[in-house]
Amino acid sequence: MKPLLQPESGKDILSMTYEYGNSEQARFELPDECPVCHTGIDVRIFGAYGERREEPIQVVFQCPKEGCHRFFIGYYEERDTEKWLLSRLEPRVSQGREFGDKIRKVSKQFQTIYDQALAAECYGLDEICGAGYRKALEFLVKDYVVSRKPEDKGKIERMGLGACITAYVDNPRIKSVAERGWWLGNDETHYVRKWTGKDITDFKRFIEATVSWILLEILTWESKKDMPGRESQVTNR
Is the pTM of this model over 0.85? Predict the structure, then answer.
């Protein structure tokens, strides 16, 4: 197929000429977000390539956003009765997940590992990103425990994650979600999955919940430090 004719901005109907001479106009599902800067866009189309009508088509796009202007490729592998369907965009750049300064203070390494796992997931590396999330959870939990029991740091570092949660996590809410995250994390690194009805989304949800409960505990500590005493008193006004 020769390059598609450049349409007017925002139009999803493109003219195509195949190598054996036939021409047609077809409707394309256009991306509405840049996979690099993750901004909603009215995409610019620069051309496309494909060999035959029944084969996949690659369309070259550009982000119009000031400060980005990155080129990316849309892959079209099939179409319904109305238009070619967008299969994927490449390259994809992960936005990262910012957990905030309080969590970073507890475990800076957790933030780094989680972002790398998220990048792997963004690139479609679904067979290895789970192991990265499992490592991130272990750093989060162990660094949290060490922050509370610094005198046991050496012992905590040598323990397995499950044993660490059992022995050192006293907060029942943190223990509940961290333990379930550990179960699903093991599924991401072991040969046989035990929790067949759960996936990486469920695992990440337990990591997020663990972060949230740890953050609430930190805020509670800070409030007690800033306003000490009188906790057992009831003041009537």
Answer: no
